[in-house]
């Protein structure tokens, strides 16, 4: 259905005569770009969400696009939005972008000159190119293009100082140099046909030298303007005001010429019948005297005749200028690229801690190493002192993290920071790390959050399963997969079973880079079966029943979720908290039994595992007993087996027996 919709839009677009032969359908080469599904776009906050509050903790940086978009041109804003949706898989092109960003990060003068002096002067050349192609251009539009092109040689001079940077030379300097040369005839056309002196004043007219009758009309207008200028001194003397300061002579296309004074001086005009007030606003009072009214009418009449006569000339100018539409569009594309790369460099240096250039390596290297990675949006929020963490992935050695820890402990932020950093590296931006080595990815996939889709009639769990199924079908060994709290939309045991099986499939069969945050602590045993799986946990301290979150990711397991502590932090009623504690004690399974060494998660797991093996052996031996024996003999042999199991002095078994 999507394909049919886009074809229909294309037909409507090309049915317009003005769009004839201006558009064509091209197939996007998917092999050039990383696959980024809608779930990942939302989970990583790539674009601003229209349904969320625009500010967070007094800071508006709530998306990656908002953070990076420091562009100064309209075409730059559009291109950066496209780039964040289409991360690259072309290693050489990524490195070229990084080369230019590195140059601009290191060269403060060039970066600020481009951003503040040149790029902000660039109009929307791509929109002007469309008007050119449709022959809907005005003289003002031609003048905008003319001014833009006239400034480009100076911009080129600045860039040529760094022409030894091959990427800058290839992507920006050489294409821009050729395009400026192609626009030489257009510049001559504008200089010969447009009155540039009038254009500087905001009056866009054909050059009077272009035709004799235009010259006659222009001479008449000039004479009238000279006479009008003399009226200023006369009115100033009449009103006892200083000409040019207290009273001014101004002109615009709608009203023509008029006098203007401030609102405070308005009382001077009272009871002076030969002055006519046009209007009053914050800028002051606009008015004319009788003589200026007559002269202005004559001036507007001559001007209207001039404008009417020049219409045929404008048609000829636009007809010729239309041939430059593709060149203007190409210049817009090159400048948009320069604008985006300048924006990347500005974002890198304006961060709380300057971003670094990631080392991009081929997919075959199988590395994803981020040292002291930060979340770029979160660290920009006011009052946030961000705790950075590491991630070290090497294919077949360690490519899967199971992350446990308390709610609000930073698990989701940690896994998102990795996804965002990988994305930024692949679009050509620097990254918020101390050091980064990233193998080329083919997908960034995510299953984060718990939203339903009422319009589609899908429950939270169904949405979770659909997105996870898409991950399992799409992911490869070169994919980055981010999964947060999978399986919580159904019963505990079903959810744990589903989460375990998916984690094992990703780790054992697909072998993708994966960050798997969960509260199902049973899944941490997967490290015993698959060597490439490692346990990580976010740290917290509990003192005097108070929870202190440290936000530091460390190796090992956190066997508690601290849910009751978080509920207490959220100001739950104390009686609800106490009741929850009692229910927790009732519902906890045998794994919650306390014994010597159970405060150490690693030691506890080992002791429980040994105990379970002994219990399993005990049950097997019991089943093997001769059922024909008398009850006394059976009880004697079972007691003997019990003594045997107790002889191992397993603390877990001892604690279990003490509870019964």
Automatic annotation (TrEMBL):
Q: Name a single GO cellular component.
A: MutSalpha complex
- What would be one Pfam family of this protein? MutS_III
Annotated DNA mismatch repair proteins mutS family domain residues? 479-495
Q: Tell me the keywords, alphabetical order.
A: ATP-binding, Coiled coil, DNA damage, DNA repair, DNA-binding, Nucleotide-binding, Nucleus
Q: Cite the SMART domains for this sequence.
A: MUTSac (SM00534), MUTSd (SM00533)
Q: Does the keyword Transmembrane helix apply?
A: no
Q: Which Gene Ontology molecular-function terms are recorded?
A: ATP binding; ATP-dependent DNA damage sensor activity; mismatched DNA binding
- Which GO biological process categories is it annotated with? maintenance of DNA repeat elements; mismatch repair; mitotic recombination
Q: Superkingdom of the source?
A: Eukaryota
- Which positions are tagged coiled coil? 176-234
User: Quick one: where is this thing mainly located?
Assistant: nucleus
Kindly give the Gene3D superfamilies that the UniProt entry links to this protein. 1.10.1420.10, P-loop containing nucleotide triphosphate hydrolases
Subcellular location, in the record's words? Answer: Nucleus
**Alphabetical list of InterPro entries matching this protein:** DNA_mismatch_repair_Msh2, DNA_mismatch_repair_MutS_C, DNA_mismatch_repair_MutS_clamp, DNA_mismatch_repair_MutS_core, DNA_mismatch_repair_MutS_sf, MutS, P-loop_NTPase
Q: Of which family is this protein a member?
A: Belongs to the DNA mismatch repair MutS family.
Q: What is this protein called?
A: DNA mismatch repair proteins mutS family domain-containing protein
């Amino acid at each position: 259905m999507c394909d049919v919709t886009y074809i229909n839009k294309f037909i409507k677009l090309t049915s317009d005569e003005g769009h004839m032969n201006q558009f064509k359908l091209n197939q996007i080469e998917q092999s050039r770009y990383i696959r980024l599904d809608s779930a990942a776009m939302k989970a990583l906050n790539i674009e601003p969400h229209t349904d969320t509050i625009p500010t967070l903790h007094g800071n508006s940086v709530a998306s990656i696009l908002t953070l990076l978009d420091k562009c100064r041109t309209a075409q730059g804003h559009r291109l950066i939005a496209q780039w964040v949706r289409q991360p690259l898989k072309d290693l050489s092109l990524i490195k070229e972008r990084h080369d230019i960003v590195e140059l601009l990060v290191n060269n403060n003068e060039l970066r600020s000159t481009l951003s503040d002096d040149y790029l902000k002067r660039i109009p929307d050349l791509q929109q002007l190119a469309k008007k050119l192609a449709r022959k809907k251009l005005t003289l003002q539009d031609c003048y905008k293009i003319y001014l833009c092109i006239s400034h480009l040689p100076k911009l080129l001079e600045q860039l040529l100082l760094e022409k030894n940077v091959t990427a800058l030379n290839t992507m920006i300097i050489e294409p821009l140099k050729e395009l400026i040369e192609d626009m030489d005839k257009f510049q001559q056309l504008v200089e010969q046909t447009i009155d540039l002196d009038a254009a500087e004043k905001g009056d866009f007219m054909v050059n009077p030298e272009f035709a004799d009758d235009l010259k006659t009309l222009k001479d008449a207008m000039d004479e009238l303007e000279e006479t009008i200028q003399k009226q200023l001194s006369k009115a100033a003397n009449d009103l006892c005001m200083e000409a040019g300061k207290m009273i001014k002579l101004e002109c615009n296309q709608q009203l023509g010429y008029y006098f203007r004074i401030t609102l405070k001086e308005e009382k001077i005009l009272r009871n002076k019948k030969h002055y006519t007030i046009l209007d009053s606003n914050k800028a002051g009072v606009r008015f004319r005297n009788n003589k200026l009214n007559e002269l202005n009418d004559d001036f507007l009449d001559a001007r209207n005749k001039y404008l009417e006569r020049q219409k045929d000339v404008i048609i000829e100018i636009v007809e010729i200028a239309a041939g430059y539409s593709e060149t203007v569009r190409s210049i817009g594309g090159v400048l948009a690229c320069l604008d985006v790369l300048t924006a990347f460099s500005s974002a890198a240096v304006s961060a709380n801690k300057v971003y670094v250039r990631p080392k991009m390596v081929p997919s075959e290297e199988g590395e994803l190493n981020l040292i002291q990675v930060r979340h770029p949006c979160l660290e920009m929020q006011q009052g946030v002192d961000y705790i950075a963490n590491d991630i070290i992935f090497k294919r077949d050695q360690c490519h899967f993290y199971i992350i446990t820890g308390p709610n609000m402990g930073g698990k989701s932020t940690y896994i998102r920071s990795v996804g965002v950093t990988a994305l930024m590296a692949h679009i050509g931006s620097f990254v918020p790390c101390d050091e980064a080595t990233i193998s080329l990815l083919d997908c960034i996939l995510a299953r984060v959050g718990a939203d339903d889709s009422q319009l589609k009639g899908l429950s939270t769990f169904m949405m979770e399963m659909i997105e996870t199924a898409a991950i399992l079908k799409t992911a490869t060994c070169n994919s980055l997969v981010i999964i947060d709290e999978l399986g919580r939309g159904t019963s505990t045991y079903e959810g744990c079973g589903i989460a375990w099986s998916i984690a094992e499939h990703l780790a054992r069969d697909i072998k993708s880079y994966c960050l798997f945050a969960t509260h199902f602590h049973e899944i941490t045993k997967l490290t015993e079966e698959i060597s490439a799986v490692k346990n990580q946990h976010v740290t917290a301290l509990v003192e005097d029943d108070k929870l202190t979150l440290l936000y530091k990711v460390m190796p090992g397991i956190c066997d508690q979720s601290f849910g009751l502590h978080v509920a207490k932090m959220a100001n739950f009623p104390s009686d609800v908290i106490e009741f929850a504690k009692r229910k927790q004690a009732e519902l906890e399974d045998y794994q919650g039994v306390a014994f010597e060494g159970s405060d150490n998660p690693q030691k506890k797991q080992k002791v429980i595992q040994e105990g379970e093996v002994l219990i399993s052996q005990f049950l097997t031996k019991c089943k093997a007993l001769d059922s024909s024996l008398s009850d006394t003999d059976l009880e004697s042999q079972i007691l003997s087996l019990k003594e045997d199991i107790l002889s191992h002095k397993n603390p877990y078994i001892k604690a279990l027996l003490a509870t019964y």
